[in-house]
Write a structure and sequence with these properties.
The protein is an alpha+beta fold. It is about 60% helix and about 10% strand.
Length: about 325
């Protein structure tokens, strides 16, 4: 038996592998959404109607302080040139999306600008967020601007204070009621994106299932031939890199391990024939050398081919008692 610590480490690696695969899948869906025409059209209409930036980001990624939109004269963009001010804005974005089961959240940072995050779900977990902000919910005042400049000076920053003041008083201002109405519209759009996300996941899983089934069938049919990862990926009609990820997800093992198992299971069947030599079984199964065959057989079966063959009478008797010798690809 393996020590408990080894079992725990193995289980932990399995959980981490699944989480990593899940994150990778979410990133691919989010990338598709951000490039989709529906998001581009909505983002353009939203910005033109509200005068506010709109960004979409993954759950574990971060956008710049001005949401990736270039407007060097805006109040937020000028502040973003200062490290501590930019950090304050990013903290506000973080706070707006911190709760794991959050609905829409809005926070206001020291400069008086509000930031909001609207969650986009795929299945029952958060895929990412629609973000908007750089908006004031109160009218700008000279008193508040003086407070901001005092803070910036305390941080040691020098700036064109006149330019900053002009940008401050030109900031977008919305009443709290209008801002809440705008966030409700974003929530509706987030629901549409969630529906699209789920459709993408289902469609991709169907495609992956068909591709992986085609790959497995090809391996089993051509196992006796020299098989490369590139050849099988070509049959599955996907790139080598993507094939590696999807094959590991579908089978729980990498391509080389799976191919070795298929070949070893074939050799076990051939070894049931007492007239077949061990070397004949090895080469007929697709192994190119006896060294590789013996090493793979012992690793997968737990004993050498010779030891396995000596146990065949016991295996046959067990078969008559109702315990059939089964192939094992798991």
């Amino acid at each position: 038996m393996r020590p408990a610590s080894v079992v725990k480490r193995t289980a932990s690696r399995g959980v981490m592998s699944k989480r990593s695969a899940s994150r990778s899948s979410d990133q691919e869906v989010m990338q598709h959404l951000s490039r989709s025409q529906i998001f581009k059209d909505y983002e353009r209409a939203f910005s033109e109607a509200m005068g506010l930036p709109l960004n979409i980001r993954g759950h574990d990624s971060w956008s710049p302080a001005h949401h990736g939109k270039e407007d060097r004269d805006s109040f937020a963009s000028i502040l973003a040139r200062f490290n501590k001010a930019r950090a304050a804005c990013l903290r506000a974005q973080t706070d707006a999306s911190r709760e794991p089961d959050s609905t829409t959240r809005t926070v206001t940072w020291f400069a008086g600008l509000s930031e909001s995050a609207v969650p986009v779900y795929v299945g029952d977990h958060i895929l990412g967020f629609l973000e908007t902000g750089e908006v004031m919910l109160k009218n700008p005042t000279k008193k508040h601007f003086a407070t901001i400049t005092r803070q910036l000076r305390a941080w040691g920053y020098q700036a064109d204070w006149k330019q900053l003041e002009r940008a401050y008083f030109q900031s977008c201002v919305l009443s709290p009621d209008r801002y809440r109405a705008m966030l409700r519209l974003l929530s509706i759009f987030a629901q549409h994106l969630s529906i699209l996300s789920n459709q993408l996941v289902v469609r991709r899983e169907k495609d992956e299932s068909a591709n992986m089934a085609r790959a497995r069938q090809f391996i089993e049919k051509h196992q006796a031939e020299p098989l490369s990862l590139g050849r099988v990926a070509h049959v599955a009609n996907i790139s080598r890199h993507y094939f590696c990820k999807m094959f590991k997800k579908a089978t729980g093992m990498n391509f080389i391990d799976y191919l070795s198992r298929v070949r070893v299971e074939k050799s076990k069947t051939l070894l049931l024939n007492p007239n077949s030599r061990i070397s004949e079984a090895a080469f007929a199964s697709g192994f190119q050398s006896m060294t590789n065959f013996n090493r793979a057989f012992r690793r997968i079966v737990g004993r050498s081919p010779t030891q396995f063959r000596k146990l065949l009478p016991k295996l046959r008797r067990s078969g008559r008692n109702g315990q059939k010798h089964r192939l094992n690809l798991s």
